[in-house]
Structures are given as structure tokens and as C-alpha cells.
Amino acid sequence: MSTDSHPNPLAKARIAVLGYGSQGRAHALNLRDSGLDVVVGLRPNGPTWHKALADGLQVVEPAEAVRGADLVAVLTPDMVQPTLYKESIEPNIKPGAALLFAHGFNVHFGQIVPRADIDVILVAPKGPGALVRSEYERGRGVPCIWAVHQDVSGQAEAKTKGYADGIGGGRAMIIKTDFKEETETDLFGEQAVLCGGASELVIAGFETLVEAGYQPEIAYYEVMHELKLIVDLFYEGGLTKMLQFVSETAQYGDYVSGPRVIDAGVKARMKDVLRDIQDGTFARNWTAEYKAGLPNYKRLKQTDLDHPIEQVGAKLRARMPWLQPNPAEAAAAPLKKVG
Ligand code: NAD
Ligand code: MG
What is the strand order of the sheet 37-41 is part of? Predict the structure, then answer.
């Protein structure tokens, strides 16, 4: 947190936040509440324009927000950033200003080649926007990782830390990284372990039980519902806490059967996935897929949505009243995304 003796290096800066979704809203509100000068850049009458206005922020079109800004935070979806950069940022950003990202994908893979006369920096909170905001409101913060890709002003690192302070990250912890490490580890985590790995593990477990004749409802509870208990224990206290809170029988089964399922072949294939990320194959394929109108993405998504675990899951979750959102939470829904 900045104090009078250590003023935030962005104290006199105008900050343009482009995008008002999960991260954009949290960053804009936290920066404003830290006493910094914030303007939000959005497409007129886009889905979040009125939300930003209702939150009391100044909202203008992206190009106008960029003009006159000393720091431009690019917080739109990654795939729209190259066009946004070409059309609204590149022609308008001031020499010496800073261009900030929350994910290094476009810069690292050359989808955006920033002008040579601006700073290029990264601040990525290690949490979803909702937490970035709620922790800030409680006087705390979510740890952030930060990086400098290009420093023309000699102030790039100070601006990066000022921004991390402004969104509350400085109250928790900030860790230095670079665009390559942030981008490659972020993609690997979501593909191999979090989104891709975990969902395939759950589906394989569900299918194994159902194909063996067990009821889908029972299978759902065992392999999807109860995963939350285990993940919460990991989150709170790592493997140690998980092992403390499960039975001896569960522990013994973990030790002897876990490595039979997740064996050396899995790790070898994780290395293949990592290689595709590192050599740009994934980025090339994903960019081509996006430009083609997402034909495979839509088909593969539909396959997940049509899986029997989704029918049985919807039926069972409807009987879990603690899961039904209250209207206030539903209104904050855009903050709930992770990624
Ligand atoms: P989001 O999808 O939640 O929000 C995107 C916002 O951009 C919306 O306000 C949308 O209306 C706006 N938008 C879309 N197209 C636009 C355009 N052409 N011009 C102006 N605004 C436009 O996005 P997000 O999840 O907050 O992700 C933003 C960035 O943060 C990405 O780089 C992402 O990788 C990164 N990030 C996200 C998380 C997370 O938890 N969601 C965590 C760390 C980093
Ligand atoms: Mg999947």
C-alpha cells in the first residue's frame, strides 16, 4: 500500500482500463479506491458499459481512454486484444506510456508487437477478479506476479509495482516473473492439470463406475462432487492437510492406486503438451481456430456439455440449496470467472 512517505509512482498518472469483466472491474475499482485516476475504455453499449457507469466510473470508448493515458491496462479477452491493439491502442498511446497485460499470451507469441517507444509490463493476480476485489475491500490483497518486457522510460518496474500496489497485490505478495514463464506456465496449468486434466480425470472415473453397473447418481457424488473437499484441503494446507483429513484407508488407497492411474505415461504426455506450448504450436492452432470461427471448439464443448455426467449433475445440484445463487451474487456473476 502506498503511504505519504512512499507515494505510489502512479499517483499522478492517468490509468486506462480496457475491458470490464472479471479482472477489469476488480482492477478499475481497486485502483480508484487507492486514490488513482482511472478511466474505463469499452465499446459503446457493450455488455459491461452500464455496469461500469453504475459503479461510478468514467467510461469512454477504448481509443479515447488510451489518448492521454500514462498506463493502459489491457483486460479484454485475450483473443480480441490484437485487433484492439491495432485499432485503438497503437495509434493513440503516448510515447513513454506503459502498456500493461494480465496475461502474456499475445506479447509472448508475437500476436501483439508493441510500439518500441512504450513500456510493456505485466501484473497477473493469482486469483479471480471477485477475490481481487473482495480481498481489497477487506484491507488485504491477492498475491500478484509481475514482469517487465520493455522499459523505455526507465520507470517500468516502478510502474508495475505501483499498479500491483494499487490493486492490492502489494499488501499480500508480489513475485517477479517474465512474459515467457507467466504465459507458458499459465497455459500448461490450465491444460494439463486444472481444466483439461481435472475434467478428463473426473469423466474417466464417472464412466468407469457407470460402465461397471453402478448408479450414475452415486458415481457423480464420488468423483465430481467430493472433489471439492479434496481441492479445498489442497488449497488450505497442501498434500499434508489432505492426508490429515482423510481416513487411513483413503490414504493407503491413494499411495497404492494413485500412481497406477497417473503413471509415468501421463507425465510423458504432459511434457508433450508443454512442448507444444513452448514451441508455439498451441498458440498457432488456437489463433487459427479462433479466426476460423471456432468450429472444433464449439463441437468439443458440446461433447462435454452433452456428457451424461452433466444430466445427472444438474439433477443432483438442483437439490443442493446452498448452491442456488442469491440475486446479489447473480448480479456479480461476471466477477466469478477464472482463467
Ligand atoms: P472477461 O471475459 O471477464 O472480460 C472481458 C471484458 O472485455 C468485458 O468487459 C468485455 O465486455 C470487454 N470487451 C470484449 N471485447 C472488447 C473490445 N473489443 N473492446 C473493449 N472491451 C471489450 O476477461 P477476463 O477473464 O477478465 O480476462 C482479461 C485478461 O485478464 C485476460 O488477458 C486474461 O488472460 C487475464 N487474466 C484473467 C484472470 C481471471 O481470473 N479471469 C486471471 C488472471 C489473468
Ligand atoms: Mg475436457
Answer: 58-60, 37-41, 14-18, 71-74, 98-101, 119-125, 144-150, 174-176
The DSSP string of 281-312 is: HHHHHHHHHHHTTSHHHHHHHHHHHTSHHHHH
Is residue 47 in contact with ligand 1, taking CB distance under 6 Å? yes
Q: What local confidence, expressed as pLDDT, does residue 338 receive?
A: 56
**Closest residue CA from atom 29 of ligand 1:** 75
The SS3 call for residue 225 is helix
Q: Is the pTM of this model over 0.90?
A: yes
Distance in angstroms (rounded) separating the CA atoms of residues 137 and 140: 7
Angle between helices 308-317 and 196-211 (to 10 degrees): 90
Whether 106 lines ligand 1, by a CB cut-off of 6 Å, is: no
First to last CA, the chain: 26
208-258, pLDDT tens digit by residue?
999 999 999 999 999 999 999 999 999 999 999 999 999 999 999 999 999
Task: Give the Å distance between the CA of 223 and the centre of ligand 2.
Answer: 15
Q: Is 22 in the pocket of ligand 1 (CB under 6 A)?
A: yes
pLDDT, tens only, 108-120 = 999 999 999 999 9
Q: Quick one: cell of 167?
A: 490493486
Residue having the nearest C-alpha atom to atom 41 of ligand 1: 338
Residue 331's contacts (CB-CB under 8 Å, 6 or more residues apart) are none
